[in-house]
Structure of Ketopantoate reductase C-terminal domain-containing protein:
Amino acid sequence: MSTIIYPRIYLLGNSPISPLLAYEISRLPTQPKVPDVVLLLQDSKKLQRFLDNDSKVCIHKQDGTINEQQFMASCNLPIYSTGEIAQINNLIACETSSKSLTSSLFKYRKSIKDSTNLLLVNPPFGSIQYILDNVWKSNASNKPNIFIGMNKFNQLETKFGRLYNEFHLKLRANSLNLLISQLPTNFNVGVSTLTDHDEDAAGTGNELMKTLKETERNSRRERSDRTSLEFQMVPFEKLYQIRLERLIVQSCIDSLSLLYDCQLNNELLHIIAQPNSILMDLLNEQINILKKSYPFLENQNYSNILLSQNRLFNVVVGLLEKNATKQPMVLHLKNQLNQTPINELTGVFTRLAYTNNINCKWNKMVTELVRGKLSLLKKRSLNYHYL
């Protein structure tokens, strides 16, 4: 029986998902002691800190166990001994913002070819088109095979796990479930269903998808020290519907939680239950912006259901009720003075509205109020007059 040789996988990004994927791929049975997984780090300083940490990534489980694994790492393009730039055949990008995702891919674009398999995990809405227009527009012949992966369940990555000391991941869940779809070649024209394919046909024969599926199977063999993984291939149209709904719902919940300084989700639930709640104005405006920015949505069978104001309102209320006693997902970012994703929330609709000359007074107001509030909070924390 021949031994299966797994391809080299490169990972980049600051998402908590990145170290977990690296660790689980490294546990495949035929991986060498130092696995054929390469971490692409931000710069030479971070690389040096990684080397000072004995080149290890540490996974802290919920039961208190700690798993460590050494990895190869770099902060530069892979280069052969001859000085020629090497191709990256399989790349997983797990960035948390459009800016960092674009800059990272631009940095390694010379190693990314048309045969490269690129998996974007939870890319911010709008970042995919931006990448296509700014990273590969001038060299479309080198555009890779792009796959989109996103959390199956409506939760932020910070709920799944938290990074601390850069190379230590503390898990908050025992499983990771990703929906994956291949990006249609005509994505910039509109949504295209993967016709003549079943749900997993897009990944058939692709070495990156094969490696992920084998990693999934391996994660279930020894549940005692593994995080259960699931990678489910779905048609792009289905994935796009989920992304649209999640963008609307999350932008309303997170933005309003920051605006009203909610400590628990039931506080926001109390606010939006009041007559003339701003939530309905936000939803109505966001639906209008999406329909005018993406005219092809009107031609989709699911449009009237997906973009129903009453249905989306009920989804928001349902999520808040289900998690009533939990803290808002963005609260920890505000408390730690980290960059909060307001530009990836209502800021998305504001940019779309400006680009297409659409009224966006409600989303603009919320975006600017939250941005100003967070800026002032950071200024106070760093100003000795407030100590």
